[in-house]
Structure formats: structure tokens, C-alpha cells
Fold this sequence. Notes:
Elements: E1 2-6, E2 14-18, H1 26-47, E3 50-57, E4 66-73, H2 78-103, H3 109-142, H4 157-192
Antiparallel strand pairs: 1-2, 3-4
Helix pairs in contact: 1-2, 1-4, 2-3, 3-4
Amino acid sequence: METENRGNYGEKQEEIKVANKRSVNGSEVFLRFLALILTLVAAIVGGVNKQTKVVPLVLVPTLPPVNLPVSAKFNYMSAFVYFVVANAIACSYATATLLLSLADMCGKKGLSLLIIILDLAVVALLFSGNGAATAVGVLGYHGNSHVRWNKVCNVFDKFCNQLAGAIVVSLLGSLAFFVLVVLAALNLHKKSK
């Protein structure tokens, strides 16, 4: 509990205890800013990721191959679209809560609890987006011989490497949100004692 002194100069000052005065926690602001930057980078890198290659296609073994331009874009796979949208939502949410933290409007218990619950939802959203993109990425790297899906990352190497980088950055952003949830839980545990 913090105290506040009131009174004019020369008068006896009385001490008033303030029960719910919340100071802006530096680690929370840093983690929210870090999560904002990481999810923004992941959304941008994943969203602008595309590569076009010329692939030779053999129609008949006796004829020369036909060269076809083939493109790989993030919006060709729904898992990659989900990944980009999840990171964009997390980035928007991080911006809003960072502004709330800096404006110190989270001093109300109800709003703080809502932010903790939404932080947890964003962690789940990011982990599910990362999992979906990683699963499709592993198929791209290795293929699946049982269903005759060929690997594509040997052809679209730049596309796959950029997407893998975006997944790693997004995973770091989701870990920043996870640490925010853990810090909030520890803070609630301290207050309950």
C-alpha cells in the first residue's frame, strides 16, 4: 500500500492510504513492447512471403521439358493465412494493451483481470497459429511419402526459410505473452497472501 500526504504548507499533514494505486510495471511495458514488435515482424514477414521459380515439366520423355513459372505464396495454404492473421491480431492487441499500460488505465481490478484473461487467449491463439504453420512447414521440408506429397522446400528454399524465420519470431512473441501471464499469476499469488 502506498501513502499520500495532503495538506497546505505549514498545516499538519495527514497520511491517507491508497489501496489500489497501480504504478506502471517496467517489465510489463517492456514485454508488451517486445511482443508487439515480434508479432508485427512475424505478420509482415509471413504476409509478404512469396517466391516464383521456373520448374521444368516433362510431359513426354522424348520431348524437351516445358519450363513453367510456379509461385509459392502464403495465402495458398490456410495454415499460413491463419498464422499471419493470428500474429496480426496479437500485434493489435499488444498495441492496445501497451497504450493502456502506459496510460495507467489498468488500475481497475476488473480491467486488469480482463487483460490477464485476454493475454492467455492471445497465447493460445499464437501457439495454435505457430503449430499450424509449423506442421505445414514440416510437410514442405520433408513431404509425406505415404500420401505421395513431395517436398517443396527444395524448390522454394527462400519461401520456406522466410516462413521458418517468421515462425521462430512468432514463437518468441508468444513466449513474451506467456511470461506476461506468468508474471500476472505470480502477482495475484503475492496479493492473496
